[in-house]
């Protein structure tokens, strides 16, 4: 049995999907206006572990993750600049280029951390029509009002607003009013109301662009304040951030889905608003299980560029640490506890991970030598117990820390090397530490990051069958004194 902590009910519940064995699962994805950092990594490793655990339990997972490439404002209260437009100005590029560049950066991070890519990845800007349709339904049902700044959702019309936070609408509004930093958009009826559609120009005034809801090309409209805007029944503008996830979740997975994940910061606003607008539109429960990962802090502080603690995988690598050692570090804490990243903890995780790989390499060698060892009844019982215990802890709200402890118990036990190896490979289906690819890591550690990146680039080119370009990269790698070895087990690189 699988138990998951559901933010909606504030307790651990037995998980069963609506239509077994199918599980419909939506993850809030990144806003692609800047580099992905190690805090994002924590949330997406958690979401990956959840997918793996579901599959381990023989569910068939249909998972969608969005890419937010429009509408996420610098203030969660519908004021401030669109993060994407801000990123474009910062780099003097088009918003579309910014989105493409940082989406690629994010995807590379997933690959490096051995995070499985969800079946469907969808961009907000590819689903504007669906968002407009949803807002239309809400308007027809009387949940919206229009002010100079845009079309808003009237939270007082949705009686269970805020349920995810455990607070009532009145309590939420009181809290917001008490908060000194809440900038209230002029004309908004209640502090909790949120934008469904924001106008590029006050009152939706349009400057003679298409009226069919199609994208207005940035190059055609260079004088506009915004690069990304679309026509809509209310006027030219862009969607609110929250409507994106509702529209895409409903489009790809249906009105009611089994699971929705994100960082804990999304509970009071983004997810609360997703629930309100989705349920108001469909009249059905939007999500059955909400799961949230707690945030990562760095040396006790929130990650920010000004504090110079905004770390990316690149920074981890530059200090000589492996990507998967970071994954190992994250697995040592429960996803629902806040985690503080320190370089000391990173060193400890790298050491433990190296040790695990060394031990496993030895086990792998012994396994072939001692192939014929027959298990005693007692040892067979132990193997079974390890497997049961691992399944139990992992099915207890994804307790990866306890799962890792069992991996170490297996390593230290007296069962045969063959059984140790098989058990650890089975557990790694969930942990995702890529332990089947283990090689002598002393050799691997001395391969510079630059070479590892070139190897990855070559693999990517080979994957898309760009053989000539891939070959050029191989020649470049060889020119730097390294040898590429391709085999059916994958590509290895060695000093020449
Ligand atoms: P964003 O790109 O800001 O929209 O965030 C994408 C996802 O990463 C969301 O689910 C956030 O909650 C999560 N996230 C952002 N910062 C952190 C952090 N410091 N620690 C953990 N998760 C984070
Ligand atoms: Zn979302």
TrEMBL record:
Q: What does the record note about the cofactor? A: Binds 1 zinc ion per subunit.
| Organism in which the protein naturally occurs | Candidatus Gottesmanbacteria bacterium RIFCSPHIGHO2_02_FULL_40_13
Family label: Belongs to the class-I aminoacyl-tRNA synthetase family.
Record motif 'HIGH' region, residues: 30-40
Give every tRNA synthetases class I catalytic domain span.
15-211, 226-350
Instruction: Supply the InterPro entries for this chain.
Output: Cys-tRNA-ligase (IPR015803), Cys-tRNA/MSH_ligase (IPR024909), Rossmann-like_a/b/a_fold (IPR014729), tRNA-synt_1_cat_dom (IPR032678), tRNAsynth_Ia_anticodon-bd (IPR009080)
- What is the name of this protein? Cysteine--tRNA ligase
**What is the E.C. number?**
6.1.1.16
Q: Where is this motif: 'KMSKS' region?
A: 302-306
> Partners and quaternary state?
Monomer.
Principal localisation: cytoplasm
Per UniProt, where does ATP bind? 305
Quick check: keyword Cell wall biogenesis/degradation in the entry? Answer: no
Q: Which gene encodes it?
A: cysS
